[in-house]
Specification:
CATH superfamily of the largest domain: Type I PLP-dependent aspartate aminotransferase-like (Major domain)
Number of strands: 12
Distance between the termini: 62 Å
Bound molecules: pyridoxal-5'-phosphate
CATH architecture of the largest domain: 3-Layer(aba) Sandwich
CATH topology of the largest domain: Aspartate Aminotransferase, domain 2
Strand order of the largest sheet: 2-8-7-6-5-3-4
Strand content: 5-15%
CATH class of the largest domain: Alpha Beta
Largest sheet: 7 strands, mixed
Length: about 375
């Protein structure tokens, strides 16, 4: 061939880079907020049995509407958040990323706007791009909270169809007060917008912090999204879900989802994990304790640490954060260079991994010899 073939890729995708946090094989992988504990042996066996039980039926398409799994999710939300919802209000897909993508397909689109408040999760602009939805972010306050009157003005003036509130937020770890979530939800409701509260880290919240699920019965425009990737230690299984105040949301998502989007294997694995959620909760409690201890240690070492209701901590400030990140990586500790300039984010790992992180950090900053 003499002439080079030019792929007819969409103009707006030309020159873009694919999402890619490094997946490196190092001693302590503390960069993508995974649960550091592997799936307990008893649960791993139960999942294997559940898959074996359905395997001979894989010649058939799965339950398109994943009804058994969604019923199990209702039971989990009743226990975890103390909120009763019906199957018709719950939707599941391959990770909360897919749920969010479907929400953009159904409620965004050309001529429509989604707004959120940053620093926040880096994937939202991609869902907007994929669905030709306009996307706008407004800055959070110094403590990473949201200025509620300011947010209400934005909603009034810009008339979005989607408002995303991430709580606990990534990469800051900070949770919004329910009063703030409710005030923004009410304003959005009067302006005809849905509010998606992304609660990917809900199970790690501290004791006095409530889930936005408790607001669902009062606000028909509210949707809470969650995931089994973090608290359930199932990032590899890909299962996320939405709980909607309004069953019409679920009907809308059924219009845009791909046929048979959730495999029978995924449905069986997730349903089994939900039946074992008590085993996993004990591990969540351990991570929360380690997080609080690590936050205290970082504070004692003189760092600024954002309040965290998640399984990671944002800490700073560094004049050259890349240098610190690289120094940690050289010592086998991979964290994330993200968030506002000067800050770094570390996922809470096992006690051993956290010890490695503390020692490596002191070494990088030339403070070795001190206790870690
Ligand atoms: C990790 C994370 C998710 C979860 O994504 P999955 O697709 O469920 O793995 C969603 N939102 C935020 C803010 C996250 O950090």
């Amino acid at each position: 061939m003499s002439e080079e073939f030019v792929l007819p890729i969409r103009d707006d995708l030309i020159g873009m880079h694919a999402y890619g946090a490094p997946q490196l094989d190092v001693a302590a992988r503390l960069n993508v907020n995974e649960n550091p504990y592997s799936v307990p042996e008893s649960l791993a066996r139960a999942m294997g049995d559940a898959v074996a039980d359905i395997a001979s039926g894989l010649n058939r398409y799965p339950d398109r509407d994943a009804v058994a799994l969604r019923a199990a999710l209702c039971g989990y939300i009743a226990t975890e958040a103390g909120v009763d919802v019906g199957v018709e209000q719950v939707w599941a897909a391959n990770g909360s990323n897919e749920v969010m993508h479907q929400l953009f397909l159904a409620f965004g689109g050309p001529g429509r706007l989604a707004v959120t408040f940053d620093p926040t999760y880096s994937m939202y602009p991609e869902y907007a791009r994929d669905t030709f939805t306009e996307f706008a972010t407004y800055p959070r306050q110094a403590d990473f909270g949201i200025d509620v009157p300011g947010a209400c003005d934005v909603i009034e003036q810009r008339r979005p169809s989607i408002v995303i509130l991430t709580s606990p937020n990534n990469p800051t770890g900070t949770a919004l007060s329910l009063a703030d979530v409710e005030a923004i939800t009410i304003k959005a409701g009067t302006a005809g917008a849905i509010v998606i509260v992304d609660e990917a880290y809900a199970e790690f919240r501290r004791d006095n912090v409530d889930s936005a699920c408790t607001l669902l019965s009062r606000h028909p425009n509210l949707i809470v999204t969650r995931t089994m990737s973090k608290a359930f230690a199932l990032a590899g299984a890909r299962l996320g879900y939405a709980i909607a105040a309004n069953a019409g949301v679920v009907s809308a998502l059924m219009l845009v989802r791909l046929p048979y989007h959730l495999s029978a294997v995924t449905q069986a694995v997730a349903t089994t994990a939900l039946a074992h959620s008590d085993v996993l909760q004990a591990r969540v409690a351990q991570v929360r304790e380690e997080r609080d201890a690590m936050a205290m240690w970082l504070t004692q070492e003189g760092f600024d640490v954002a309040d965290s209701d998640a399984n990671f901590l944002l800490f700073g400030h560094f004049s050259d954060r890349h240098d610190v990140w690289q120094g940690l990586l050289d010592r086998g500790v991979l964290i994330r260079e993200t968030g506002p300039e000067g800050w770094l984010r570390v996922t809470v790992g096992t006690p051993e991994e956290n010890g490695m992180f503390r020692r490596a950090l002191l070494q990088v900053l030339g403070r070795q010899g001190e206790d870690a």
